[in-house]
Amino acid sequence: MARSDDGARGFQLSGVVARQLALWMSYEDTIRVADLKTRSSRFDRARKEVRAKPDQIVYLTEFMHPRVREIADSLPAPLGHMVLDTPWINKFVGRFCRKGRYIHSTKLGGFFLLKSLSALRRIRRSTLRYQEEQARIERWLARIEDLAGSHYDLALEIGRCQNLVKGYGDTHARGLGNFNRLMGAVDMLKSRADGAALLAELRAAALADDQGQALTEKLAGLSRSPEKGRKT
C-alpha cells in the first residue's frame, strides 16, 4: 500500500488503511464475543459499575440469540458451508435459533459454556467467517490500490467506508450490506470529478441510518443527478 501512496499527501492513505484494517481484523464473531464476556476485567468492571461491596455477589446474565449464520460462521469452513447450503441441516440447526436464551455467565454452567466457545479461537483461522472476512479485506485493499494512483481522494473514502462494517449479528449484516452497496457505486463515482465527495456523503448517510433508507434515497438521487465534470 505504501508504494501506491502519495508522500506529498503525508501518506494519508496508508494511515487510513492501517487504522481501518486493524478494526476490520478485530471483527466480532461468536468466538470473540464469548471471549470478551468471560474476561475477568469485565466482571471487575461490572462490580465497579454497580458499586458492589467486597462481600456482595454480582450475577451477570447474557442474552444470546445466534442465527444459523453465526453458528455456521464459527465452524470450519467446509462444515459452515454444509450448514448453510444443505436445506435439512439448515432447518435442523434453525430449530435451536428460534428463541434467544439467557445465559448466566457468573454461574458455573454458563461460564463453562462461554469459556468452551471462546477456546475455539485456536481454530479461528479455519472458520468460515475468517475466510470470508479475509476475502472481503483482500477485495477492499485491491480496490484501494487500484484507484490510489489516479483517484487518490476516492481511494481515501473507500478506505474510510470500512467503518460501516462493525458489530455482530444483525448489526453486522446491515452494515456489511450498506458497505457492499457503496462499493457497487464506486465504478460510477470514479468517472466523476466529485466522486470522492459523493462517496463521503453516501457513507455519512449509511452511518446515520443503519436501516439503509437514507442511503437508498441518496443513491436514487445520485443516479438522477447530472455529473459535475468527468475525472480525467
Automatic annotation (TrEMBL):
Pfam families: DUF6537. It comes from the Bacteria. Residues 8-183 form the DUF6537 domain. This is DUF6537 domain-containing protein. It comes from Iodidimonas gelatinilytica.
